[in-house]
Structure formats: C-alpha cells, structure tokens
C-alpha cells in the first residue's frame, strides 16, 4: 500500500512539471474566440481609380430670359410689369458619365476620414426649351397720358434657352466605417462645372390708346370710348441673344457610397451623387449621378 501511494505521488509531480513547461497559448486563456470574432481591413493610404455611370440633368429655364427682357425694357414703364415673367419651365435629360478619382484615407480604429478629388466627363448632357407669353398691360406705373386716355400695351415675348454640361471637378470630404472588406461612406464638398449656356428672346410691343369722352345731353351724362389703332413701339420691339461657352458654375455636392475590397489594394465602389450648381445666365442646373468604379489603394 505504501508503494502505491509513492507511485501516485510521483506521477502527479511529473504531470505538474509538464504543464508548467507548455507554451502560453491564447486558446488556454479563453482569448482565441475573441480573436476570430472581428474582421478588419486596412483602408488607410492613398488611392486612385476610375469608373462610369449614368446622369440625369434637371435644368430650370423659368427665369432664363429675365436678364434679356430687363435690358429690352430698361428705362421704360414696361420693365417692372415684365421683370418676373416666366416663359419656360424645367426640362430633364439623361446621359452617361465617365470619371476619375484620387484621394487619401486616414483610419482611426473603425472610423475612416478621406479627402478626395474627382473629375467627371458627361457625354452630350444637353437640353433646350422654348416658350412664349402674351399680356396686355394697362396704364403701367410711371406712364404719362391724358386723364381721358387709356394706354394699352400689348406685349408678346417668345424665348428659347439651352444648356449643356460638359464636365466638372469636385473636392469631397468622406466619412466611412470599416466593415471588414466593405466600407460604406458618406461625402459632401464643393463642385465646379463647365457648361455652354444660351438664351434668346423676341419682344413685340404695340400701344393702343383709347379715348373716353363724356358729354351732358338733356341733363344726362353720356360716356363714349373711341378705340385707337395699335401702333408698334420700336424701342421695345426687338430681339436679344446671349451665349456663353465654357462658362464655369460653382456648386456643392453630397452623396452616399460603398467600397468593397476585391483583393489586396484593389477595390470596387458604387455611389450616388447629388450636385447643385449656381445659376448661369439665370439658368439653374441640378445633377443626379449614379456610378460604379474600380480603384487601387497603396
């Protein structure tokens, strides 16, 4: 019996010594599972790429010819009544786009901040419209005439306008999230577009003067009106045309996107971008761009 206890004690000592010599593995401390639970990707670095997409253009021509009509009716009693005439409406068009981008990512844990510059070329993103409006303006403010005379200005305006967005550059700040091989992001920034814009208007103005006379017949006042013949007003009956080629329009941009790491530094992206430009010759242009692309991060 004494020998049996000596054998058990010897085996126990050998087992303890062997355990003490084993390496300190994470799985023995319960950390191995935690190490596999998080998938991360290094998005930090400089990147570049390019892609293609589809653009829709909404051009607002409602006030496009206002500058021309104000010039035609300058220093006349018709300038104020015609100052805000809307001859045309919004139009829409679609086209393809091609783009290139370069940027820099800075990563802090799961957060990614980026500064990115893009260039986009639009394939014949052009639209045009026309319209007309007629109105009789009676005794406008500032008009001088005899007390019994009514001045009737018959004004007809016919206008056309067109806009073509050629290309644009943007400087965008991005905020992204490290989702492993995926990085969803949002962005906002400044945009500068280059476009051709034209507008024209033709005005036709006739003045008809009606004379009203009153006489007393047998104690009764009888009023009669004599309608005059329309006479052309040459000073305000004219045509004006204006065109600007390669005009620059500043604006802003914002949108959403997602990037996916295909292999090593190679990634694909999909994004939506909204762009709003300031008016050029009273013509406002808004773009909606959808894009796909490929890039490489160093």
TrEMBL record:
GO cellular component: cell outer membrane
UniProt subcellular location: Cell outer membrane
Residue span, Outer membrane protein beta-barrel domain: 7-298
InterPro entries cross-referenced by the UniProt entry: Beta-barrel_OMP, OMP-like, OMP/PagP_B-barrel
Signal peptide bounds: 1-19
Keywords from the UniProt entry: Cell outer membrane, Membrane, Signal
Recorded family membership: Belongs to the Omp25/RopB family.
Protein name: Porin family protein
Native species: Bradyrhizobium cytisi
């Amino acid at each position: 019996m004494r020998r049996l206890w000596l054998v058990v004690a010897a085996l126990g000592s050998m087992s303890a010594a062997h355990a003490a010599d084993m390496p300190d593995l994470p799985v023995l401390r319960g950390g191995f599972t935690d190490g596999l639970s998080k998938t991360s990707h290094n998005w930090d670095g400089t990147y570049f790429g390019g892609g293609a997409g589809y653009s829709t253009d909404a051009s607002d021509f409602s006030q496009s010819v206002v500058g021309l009509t104000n010039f035609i009716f300058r220093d006349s009693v018709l300038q104020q009544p015609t100052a805000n005439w809307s001859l045309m409406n919004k139009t829409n068009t679609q086209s393809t786009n091609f783009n290139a981008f370069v940027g820099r990512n800075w990563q802090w844990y799961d957060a990614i901040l980026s500064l990115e510059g893009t260039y986009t070329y639009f394939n014949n993103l052009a639209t045009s419209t026309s319209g007309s409006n007629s109105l009789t303006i009676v005794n406008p403010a500032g008009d001088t005439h005899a007390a019994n005379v009514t001045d009737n200005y018959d004004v007809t305006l016919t206008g056309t306008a067109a806009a073509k967005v050629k290309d644009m550059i943007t400087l965008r700040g991005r905020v992204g999230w490290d989702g492993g091989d995926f990085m969803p992001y949002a962005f906002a920034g400044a945009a500068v577009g280059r476009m051709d814009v034209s507008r024209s208007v033709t005005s036709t103005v006739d003045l008809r003067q009606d004379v009203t006379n009153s006489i007393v017949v047998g104690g009764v006042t009888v009023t009669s009106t004599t309608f005059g013949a329309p006479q052309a007003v040459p000073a305000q009956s004219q045509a004006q045309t204006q065109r600007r080629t390669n005009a620059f329009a500043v604006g802003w941009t914002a949108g959403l996107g997602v990037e996916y790491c295909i292999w090593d530094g190679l990634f694909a992206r999909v994004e939506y971008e909204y762009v709003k430009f300031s008016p050029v010759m009273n013509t406002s242009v808004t773009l909606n761009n959808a894009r796909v692309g490929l890039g490489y991060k160093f």
